[in-house]
């Protein structure tokens, strides 16, 4: 009797141990932080201009901006063609060729780790060739806007910043990364 009581306690302890391990894993998965580099805009807002002839891709960029603005972490504000800090574009035939297998690309110019000018381009030829849906296109645009704010790639698939992301929209880890990026000074990466 004593022995079986003892065994019962051991079993219970192991069960609790397993439960703790599982909870630990779930927490670890959910908090794979989206990294960021040393560059950031001077403040948590910036002006943009959409530079594409396509009404469809203009809508995609607008929807991605709406999604990020809704998070409250950063504010994209429409600017003038001459002075906007961010240019959102679609690739020409020749640009598309030079982008290779990248469905989106973000180039930036910075001084002392402050972003001065950023250009994000959607490779529309490739998006169509790969059969991306409208929501896939939106996720690619949201990913590129993540780069414009200074975010890097998240190794986890549960992030809009996964390097080959297609399915995921903006996640909590991505919003937290932008908030932290604009709390920490330029020059400090995560
Ligand atoms: Zn990327």
Measured between the Cα atoms of the first and last residue, the distance is: 57 Å
Radius of gyration: 22 Å
Percentage of residues in helical conformation = 40-55%
- SSE order, one letter for each helix or strand: HEHEEHEEHHH
Structural class: alpha/beta
Q: What ligands does this structure carry?
A: zinc ion
Please describe the biggest sheet, giving its number of strands, its sense, and whether it closes into a barrel. Answer: 5 strands, mixed
The total count of strands amounts to 5
Detailed description of the structure:
This protein has 190 residues and is an alpha/beta fold. The protein has 6 helices and 5 strands. The termini are far apart. The longest helix is centred in the first third of the chain and has 29 residues, at 2-30. The protein has one domain (45-181): Collagenase (Catalytic Domain), CATH 3.40.390.10. It is globular, with a radius of gyration of 22 Å. α2 (55-71) crosses α5. Residues 1-22 and 24-29 have low confidence and may be disordered. Helix content is 44%, strand content 17%. It has a 5-stranded mixed β-sheet with strand order 2-1-3-5-4, covered by helices on one side. It has helices at residues 2-30, 55-71, 93-98, 124-129, 134-149, 172-181; strands spanning 45-51, 75-78, 86-90, 104-111, 114-122. Zinc ion binds at residues 143, 147, 153, 163.
Descriptive tags:
6 helices, MetalloPept_cat_dom_sf, Collagenase (Catalytic Domain), 5 strands, disordered N terminus, binds zinc ion, 190 residues
Summarize the SSE layout with pairings.
Elements (H helix, E strand, L loop, with lengths): L1 H29 L14 E7 L3 H17 L3 E4 L7 E5 L2 H6 L5 E8 L2 E9 L1 H6 L4 H16 L22 H10 L9
